[in-house]
Description:
The complex is a heterotrimer.
Chain A: H1 21-25, H2 30-59, H3 70-105, H4 114-134, H5 165-193, H6 206-237, H7 251-285, H8 292-305, H9 321-333, H10 335-349, H11 358-381, H12 383-389, H13 393-423, H14 429-455, H15 470-500
Helix pairs in contact in A: 2-3, 2-4, 2-15, 3-4, 3-5, 3-7, 3-13, 4-5, 5-6, 6-7, 6-8, 7-10, 7-11, 7-13, 8-10, 10-11, 11-13, 11-14, 13-14, 14-15
Chain B: H1 6-18, H2 41-74, H3 90-119, E1 126-133, E2 136-141, E3 147-151, E4 173-176, E5 180-187, E6 192-196, E7 201-205, E8 211-216, E9 221-226, E10 239-245, H4 247-260, H5 270-281
Parallel strand pairs in B: 1-5, 4-10
Antiparallel strand pairs in B: 1-2, 2-3, 5-8, 6-7, 9-10
Helix pairs in contact in B: 1-2, 2-3
Chain C: H1 5-13, H2 30-49, H3 58-83, H4 89-121, H5 130-136, H6 153-176, H7 180-206, H8 216-247, H9 257-283
Helix pairs in contact in C: 2-3, 4-8, 4-9, 6-7, 6-9, 7-8, 8-9
Amino acid sequence: MADATITPGAKPLEPGPLVGWRRYVYATNHKDIGTLYLSFALIASLVGTFLSIAMRLELHEPGLQYFTNPQIYNVFVTAHGLIMIFFVLMPALIGGFGNWMVPIMIGAPDMAFPRLNNLSFWFLVSSFTLFCSSLFFPGAPGSDGAGTGWTLYPLLSTKGHPGPSVDFVILSLHLAGASSILGAINFIATILNMRAPGMTMHKMPLYVWSILITAFLLVLALPVLAGAITMLLVDRNFGATFFNPEGGGDPILFQHLFWFFGHPEVYIMALPAFGIISTVIATFAGKSIFGYLGMVYAMVSIGFIGFIVWAHHMFTVGLNANTQAYFVAASLLIAVPTGIKIFSWVATMWGGSIEFRTPMLWAIGFVFLFTVGGVTGVVLANAGLDRVLHDTYFVVAHFHYVLSLGALFAIFSGWYYWFPKMTGYLLSETIGHIHFWVTFISVNVLFFPQHFLGAAGMPRRIADYPDAFAGWNFVSSLGAYGAACGAVIFFIGMAEAFYRKRPAPANPWGPGATTLEWTLSSPPPYHQFEVQPRIS
Amino acid sequence: MRIRSPLIVIASCLGMSCGVAHAGFGQPSPWQTGLQESDTTVMNALVAFNDHIMLLITLIAGLVFALLVGVMVRFNKRANPTPSKRAGNLPIEVTWTVVPFIIVLVMTIFSYRLLYFEEDVPTADLTVKATGHQWYWDYTYPDNGNFEFSSEMLDDQSRKPGQPRLLAVDNELVVPVNKVVRVRVIGGDVIHSFAVPSFGIKVDAVPGRLNETWFKATHEGTYYGQCSELCGMNHSFMPIAIRVVSEEKFNEWLAYAKNEFGQSARAPSPNKTAAIDKYNRGAD
Amino acid sequence: MAIDPRLEAEMARASPPPGPAYQLVEPSPWPIRGAFSALLLASGLILWVYNLIWPPWIVFSLGAVGVAATMIGWWRDVVREGEAHEHTPLTQLSLHYGMLLFIGSEVMFFVAWFWAFFNSALFPGDSIQVVRDKVIGGVWPPQGIETDDPWGLPLLMTAILLTSAAAVTWAHGRLEKGDRRGLKLGLIVGIALGVIFTCVQAYDFTHASFDYSGNIYGAVFFMATGFHGAHVIIGSIFLSVCLLRAFLGQFTPKEHLGLTFAAWYWHFVDVVWLFLFMFVYVWWA
């Protein structure tokens, strides 16, 4: 731009990427930023997985073997949850695949606010730095780290943790929240404004719809979390009494505010997963998604209803029975649009010509396992049953089925699907299939028995358990070690692809892959669609 | 494509409802797959409702599973090389919207029955108050002499044979059988949760908030639960133990307790005090 | 990465360029600088509060300087790009959506504070909350709390803010008619009133009969009105930047996104105040 030979009034197109680290640090290209997010999520997933293996090692047998100070176990529980949600699932599904594919799928050259896009990414790095710092500062008396659970309930997170650790966690969440809010604004502006001519809203790929709806959820839900954790901050450090009853405060206020964010948060993780599954199933069944409009409205309903069901996480705090009754009804209602999606995916495969390529294995696995997780959610939505199941391993099983067997499977599905496009290399189908089966069997061995543990009364977040729970805990831990092996296979597969360098064509998947990314080379040019395609 | 046997899946799900693999009596038993055996009127209702729900969700998951298997067998590339172009069918879409809606509606009605049965506290024969502390419970009998005592987990040295690890306590909450017992629960420092799975009760112990639940125990015996809200270092080690006895025995115990326990909670045992002191001093 | 101002001015006089309908933004150092500054600001706050470093405020201050520098540098780039006609009509539309959504997120932030307020104000006699009941006496405002007379300073503050918003709206209208003098006058009045509001609010805060800490009324009152006050300051700064740009000859009757967005922000601040006035000051006085 400082080149004096520029013709006044004409803006030359960017010549190409900067060289070296500047390309990524100063990035304003959605594909580069998507790559940053995916790499970040990969690194964070190693930390998150390490934490979970450590926990399963402890729970392998009754007694305290490794966590002689059980507060450290609580710190691991907290870190595992926060890292997986904010630094793995969200960056991968939204920042990673969203940034990479949304502009291409709508025929746009980039996001609406390319610089803001980069800020969203680097905010996450700052956020993760703050979070990791929290592990090395005093939390509860006698130890470091925040052992409050990802839910940060006061008064454990206020007077129960006098040290600075929880403050680091709070500020980390502020930055992560800002990252997501700005990213969401970016996605909404991009999707509403920058679609190629002829691409009406009702011609948009379902993945784009899923990101659009997710973005609205982020803009509306995250600021409420910001308010709640700010109240925590001032209660902790400046003498405020939002949650301290002796000052007239109410600990349950935090829970309301937290879950008002917290429930939409789980749909923020599920909706992009739904989008990926729709894309992959349509591709490998060789036919378009069954009931496109129903799928769109289902996602919109899930997003909307997701805002008015939060207190089903609070059935045991002593809410009025009528209040509980309302939340039972509203929560059960979400089963309807979710069911529509499951049946539509099956109907898409019906009459299709299914190829069991690796992405499709993960997608089919998702359909069944998300159903299992979803129906246990239906069980929990009944406050009468939640009475015995709340804060037990039944809940842990439920959300891991929809997250580790749902959202994670969708990430792997998307990864195998888009890896050739992003890198220009083909992944090995064989290794991919092995990865899938090892993981599929392991995570089911890991999490299915946890339903039994919860039903039998084993509470959450405990480092040691009564001896009767030993059997299923042992089985569950074996599943964890298997899943870790699956992760190793995953990395082997990637290393193999980068080593063998099998070139990927523009479209390795066949005529079923109809979204716009498959019309570009693999990898795509640095800038695409500088002249936008016309969609018929 | 190798698929895990559906029968095992179904059996396990049903196991969760029928309590196959000997459900515990007041405590879990090894390899248990279902809810603990019911020992109160509320838990009876809960188990019955749970049985129906478990059956329903097993059928739903089974249906989806069967559809997926069928679709994979009938419509894979070899079996069906040309995919159909059908992308919608209004009657089917309406059906799979309306039918789940009706199922959910009916479920809500039965769910409400259970909910209101649990939450409407009947006239109480006995009231007890439970205060959650880091990391033990205090029990008060406000209408029977207003005495209070602490209930701490027995560590490995203090436990006698037969007392379950991590569940047995030094002083149990003693109540009479077949009487409506109202339990008022509050937190003493941070949020805890008073839970007894075989009674079907769980209510959070929130500082500043006097929550309430109730039960009517149908059998004598000792019933255990564990703190059910993360409350710090020893969250795993502050169980609840309720001893249900005949009315006679209960009155005998009351007389003993009024004598033994004063008007305020006995201080926690010496080694427990030492541990808490060490904790508060910040030592490792 | 920054544009030479003389080239800038030349390009500003030229007509919109041919090329893509969208603005492809050059690589920029502001995101990384901003993120790093935010890290310093956040960790600096903790180091300060817990006295873990000497001087206690050093890291926080570095962070604050970094954040301020990033905002100035980044928005200056945006202004320059705008003045160089890089903001195509579609980009401008995106910017409108962006500002609207950002204000939407700020509204949700205030929802949290109002929720905290209503949690106590609507149900002061919630008998299940035994300790709170004893402390606040089952009433709102709590027993022993002397609240402001809403028809005194608060009413004055309402008048000030409403007038200020009117001045800004008027200024916007004058610009659209080409009256640059009116634009500047309206902005000056609007900003001045905003500053006066802040001063009156500061007086009110320091002369409140209740403390910020130790009681729930103080907590919800000061945090809700305090965050509002912070937004008034931010809005005043935004308007001041617009005033500066007005003096620099920027903004045309047709294109003046910065002013439009500042005005939107100012109206948002005003509406939040009206809610505060209605519920916190008047209804539960």
